[in-house]
Design a protein that fits this description.
single chain, 220 residues, alpha/beta, Rossmann fold, five-stranded parallel beta sheet, three-stranded antiparallel beta sheet, 52% helix, 15% strand
Length: 220
């Protein structure tokens, strides 16, 4: 079984997917974290973020491993779970994810992970590009104000306090970049179930998705 969840930044995809993975004993694949890891490494190596060839070569040599069922991201043997959430990565990740050569390499790796068995994965194009035949497709959304608030609190909790208006502007910029890029844009799959998380807590959304999964399983 493949459960695929798409949605914009701050919709709650990672948190909710992790919880469901633990509850249903699924392998959790965080596709966004994979792109974040490559972005982090590119920044460390001071690679020109417009040099697609260099970034594709970097992507090929980035060995990304999920541990603790997706809670830890290991890049070339180093735990970068915290570093890939830095504001600097948020600022530049859109430059990386839009590159066709990088996406081609990453999508193939993600598909390989999906072949392992029962998985739940989330990102921007997992319901449309990576796993178009997923058993369950969910699109999580929330208002820009709510998503920006969540991201602001996340940055603050990790010791990176930013101006709330700045976070809102960056979130809106990321939304535009994700939805307008030529390759693998963020969009709602025709057969995806949309859930607005603006006024819902985490447990409500988790329960709603698990109910959908059980319904689909029983229908097979």
């Amino acid at each position: 079984m493949v459960i695929a969840i798409d949605g914009p930044a701050g919709a709650g995809k990672s948190t909710i997917a992790q919880i469901i993975a633990d509850k249903l004993d699924l392998l959790y694949i965080n596709t966004g974290a994979m792109y974040r890891a490559v972005t982090w490494q590119a920044i460390q190596e001071k690679i020109d973020l417009k040099d697609q060839g260099a970034l594709a070569e970097l992507t090929r040599r980035c060995n990304i491993i999920f541990r603790d069922n997706g809670k830890k991201i290991i890049l070339n043997g180093v735990d970068v779970s915290r570093e890939i959430r830095y504001p600097e990565v948020d600022k530049h990740i859109s430059d990386i994810v839009k590159l066709p050569k990088v996406r081609e390499i990453m999508v193939e790796r993600q598909k390989q992970l999906g072949r392992i068995g029962n998985v739940i994965t989330e990102g921007r194009d997992v319901t449309t590009i990576v796993f178009p035949d997923a058993d369950v497709k969910i699109y999580l959304d929330a208002s820009l104000e709510e998503r920006a608030k969540r991201r602001y609190l996340q940055f603050e909790s990790k010791g990176h306090p930013l101006n709330q208006d700045q976070v809102k502007r960056e979130t809106a910029r990321r939304d535009k970049a994700d939805s307008s890029r030529e390759h693998g844009p963020l969009r709602v799959a025709p057969d995806a179930i949309t859930i607005d998380t603006t006024d819902k807590d985490i447990q409500q959304v988790v329960d709603e998705i698990i109910a959908i999964i059980k319904r689909e399983v029983n229908a097979c």
